[in-house]
Design brief:
heterodimer; A: 111 residues; five-stranded antiparallel beta sheet; B: seven-stranded mixed beta sheet; globular
Chain lengths: 111, 115
């Protein structure tokens, strides 16, 4: 089955700096890659996703890139703010309609 | 929030007792999922459903069963709870009827503690 690795597990940045979280996947047939943000005690919230037919997608301060050849995808957050502090999860769509999640990255933005 | 609710939101139970968690949706989505979330493991799929009475196993299905007798409800049962099943359980729905790019949205979660 699909296996998704996510790095780093924790990331600390200064407010205003950029943050990058990287994920690799194993199943070359995967074609959908969402990113979720989870604040403490809350549900995961979908923040951005990318499909295998595009290489990059942006939404204001966040962007996701996909390299199908290398089987990795990344989340980029620019001009980080304290409210960006949360745990971020990547995922890849495996067989059928199922997602396999990475282990998560705890992002801390220091004011 | 995609009209998803979970009940109970918190539960403490003892080893060996049966437990049923309920996921309810109001928007008639076909696909529903149960995940557990544990530190360092992200979200792991327990079971999922692709229609009434149509269910299948996920990555960590041992010790769990599910039922879906109507579109809006997806039940997760721990037949005999163990301490290793202490976790936060999330239900999710997938928007869309089929295809490759269906977004998943999560319910608020149920925190289960097995003593």
């Amino acid at each position: 089955g699909e296996n998704v690795e996510q790095h780093p597990s924790t990331l600390s940045v200064q407010e205003g700096d950029s943050a990058v979280i990287k994920c690799t996947y194993s199943d070359s047939a995967s074609n959908y890659f969402p990113w979720y943000k989870q604040e403490l005690g809350k549900r995961p919230q979908l923040i951005i996703d990318i499909r295998s037919n595009v290489g990059e997608k942006k939404d204001q301060r966040i962007a996701v890139t996909l390299n199908k050849t290398a089987k990795h995808f990344s989340l980029h957050i620019t001009e980080t703010q304290p409210e960006d502090s949360a745990v971020y999860f990547c995922a890849a769509k495996a067989a059928g309609n199922m997602l396999t999640f990475g282990g998560g990255t705890r992002l801390m933005v220091k004011p | 929030d995609a009209g998803i609710t979970q009940s109970p939101r918190h539960k403490v139970t003892e080893t060996g007792t049966p437990v049923t968690l309920r996921c309810h949706q109001t928007e008639n989505h076909r696909y529903m999922y149960w995940y557990r979330q544990d530190p360092g493991h992200g979200l792991r799929l327990i079971h999922y459903s692709y229609g009434v009475k149509d269910t299948d196993k996920g990555e960590v299905s041992d010790g769990y069963s599910v039922s879906r007798s109507k579109t809006e409800d997806f039940l997760l049962t721990l037949e005999s709870a163990t301490s290793s099943q202490t976790s936060v359980y999330f239900c999710a729905i997938s928007v869309g009827t089929s295809g490759s790019y269906n977004e998943q949205f999560f319910g608020p979660g149920t925190r289960l503690t097995v003593l």
